[in-house]
Every structure is written in structure tokens, then in C-alpha cells.
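sorry for the late reply, my laptop died twice this morning and i had to redo everyting from scratch. anyway the thing you sent over, i finally got around to it. pasting the sequence first so we're on the same page, its 174 residues, then the predicted structure underneath. double check i copied it right bc i was rushing
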Amino acid sequence: MENREIGGEIRRYCPSCHFVFWGNSTISVGALVIKNDRVLVVRRMKNPGKGKWTNPGGFVEQRENIETAVIREIVEETGIVAKVNKIVAIADLPGKVRHDMYIVFLLDYVEGEPNPDGVEVDAAKFCTLEELQHLEVANFTKRLIELALQPNRDGFHLTETSSNARTGYRLWAL
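ok and here's the structure:
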């Protein structure tokens, strides 16, 4: 492998087989679960955000759609079952090593009591906005909660897809 300029960027290139390493990209999801005017938060056991209160979330698996991923992450971290309502934010986080996309969902509570997994989070609970003021909440999570709870925010909703769309294709739109 050698470094070569391809498409205006220095990329790893194999002169023998012509393989180009285009870089790493990840997709993560975040959950804002609302129950009776309270939002679900968790305290992180690992970085990023170790010791801070954040919204539940994690990585999307290779063959998993984003709404399945966010529901799975909530159940894994807290035991709470929730239903996707809409997408409220998309964060674009380009970097030197990888490019991350973070998709944040507003979800409606269905059932369960917060029960931290003890692996990624050591505490989980529903809090009012007032109660959140007394916790060490990550700044990004504070901003996401503000966005999600603004009145008259439509967000992105899952739309109908055409019958000739590629398998697994999902379209979220305003």
C-alpha cells in the first residue's frame, strides 16, 4: 500500500491490485424517549461521555435499518421499549480517521422501567427538564433535548417507498 492522491485526497492505494481505501464511515443513532413529559437519560460507563448523563444510543449494524437500531439500543441499554416517532436531528462529524453520521430520533414510550445494562450505562431514568438541571448532562444531549421538545417541529418521518426500490431502502423526509 502507498499513499496516492485520488479524488483530491491522499488515500491508501495498492499499485498491484488497484484497491483504494476510501476511508471509514460509521452511522450511529441516538434516542430521545419521552414519557409523561420526562425524557429518558443514561449515565455512561465508557467514553465518549464517561460519567455524564446522555441520551441512549449506539452504532447501526451493517445490515440493520436505522429505526431498528435505535429501538435495539434503547432496549439493550435500559430495558425500555419505545416506538419511533420521527428524526429530529442529524449530526455530520467528518474527521481524519473516519466520518461519523449521528441520527437522533424522538420516540414514544411503550413499556418498561429503566434498568441500566451495567456494561455501557450504570444508571437510567426518566427526568423532567427541571431534574436534568441538577445532573451532569452532556452539552450535546442538552441541545438535542431542546431541539426535540420545541413546539411545531415536524422532523423527518418515514415515507412510503416505491415497489421498485432496492431491498432495505428507507426514505425519511419532512
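The CA atoms of residues 105 and 170 lie 15 Å apart.
thats about all i looked at so far, will dig more tmrw
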